[in-house]
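Supplementary notes for students who missed Thursday's class. We covered one full example, reproduced here. Read the sequence, then the structure, then the short commentary at the end.
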Amino acid sequence: MSREIRRTMPLLSMSIVMQLTELSARQIRYYEEHHLIEPHRTEGNRRMFSLNDVDILLEIKDYLEQGMNIAKIKKIFTKKQDPAVAEETNLSDTELRRVMREEMRQAQRMQKSSIRQGDLSRFY
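Structure (token representation):
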């Protein structure tokens, strides 16, 4: 049996996944409602999760701890699933510089430092 087949096999119940991820059942169901995960259903309609599902839930948890919202997380997962979407959002160097200049101008107008300015300060 290949590694990928083992990782996609629905083996884990909701209670086990809750312990592994430290997420509540409600949170897990919420992510399922938003199609971030799709656990297998048994004949009795119980959710069964694969190791890949657990990895996705842990990744979602990490993104939330970083301050991202569900909409942003959905975009990230969409890009991962469809590489063509990711290619459309790539910016050229010129476009990236224009966006960064505009962000810094807006920050100066508001008399605040740009979020990116701290990241860029090590380069100049």
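Commentary. Residues 93-109 form the longest helix (17 residues). Helices lie at 3-8, 14-21, 25-33, 51-65, 70-81, 83-89, 93-109, 115-120. If anything here is unclear, bring it to office hours.
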